Amino acid sequence: MAGKKVLIVYAHQEPRSFNGSLKDVAVAELSRQGCTVTVSDLYAMDFEPRATRKDITGALSSPEFFSYGVEAYEACKKRSLTSDIIAEQKKVQEADLVMFQFPLYWFSVPAVLKGWMDRVLCQGFAFDLPGFYDDGLLKGKLAILSLTTGGTADMYWKTGASGDFRYFLWPLQHGTLHFCGFKVLAPHISFAPEFASEEERRGMVASWAQRLKTIWKEEPIPCWPPWYFGQ
Fold first, then answer.
1. How far apart are CA 6 and CA 141, in angstroms?
2. Three-class SS of residue 159?
């Protein structure tokens, strides 16, 4: 939709990968709609995933005992976080929709993307106490996960070897994104692209592009336990 701003946080090492194709088609389709699209290509940026005292540029509030959460909160209030964190927070602040594109690693995100979440979504910026879940500081923004799996779709049902895919989405969609106030759109999961034919992979990319045509009309999921675990 014209005038909307989208941030794609992208975590894959290979530009010609299937994840790369999904990212590229999202950039193309959203740009075609008149959106302003920004990509944070975390591997290409060599993004630092570790949350350390280097993230605070000014004096520590408690130098005798280092607590990352406390220091990041104080530094956020004083605008003394390190420049790479501030740059990412600015992108998030400006975005109407934040999209995460990544391959599933161990039912979770790759380390570089976990580090982005740990460092960028700090207290004082993304949430406060009080100021979380429906009152999170990023309320009014949309988020969506677009991810690929190694396992096939039949593995990710309640009776499948890996259990329902919604189980592994709980810490990411609810514990992270919803906690920060995002309204979460239904995930887009591309199952087992490595085991698909070239034609099937093209179809998967096309279905993502097709969904993005009407993404702004979608209603967010009810991001509470019943969506994940049933009644």
1. 10
2. coil
Residue 135: per-residue pLDDT: 98
Q: Is the pTM of this model over 0.85?
A: yes
How far apart are the C-alpha atoms of 167 and 121, rounded to whole Å? 22
Closest CA to 141 of 77, 85, 189, 89: 89
Closest to 114 in 3D by CA, of 175, 59, 156, 187: 175
* H/E run at residue 199: helix 198-213
Residues of the chain with pLDDT under 50: none
- What is the reported pLDDT for 2? 84
* Contact present, 147 and 102 (Cβ < 8 Å): yes
Residue with tokens 């100021």: 131
In the chain, DSSP finds a helix count (H) and a strand count (E) of: 7, 6
Residues in the chain: 231
Structure token digits, residue 42: 């975390």
Single-letter residue type at 12: H
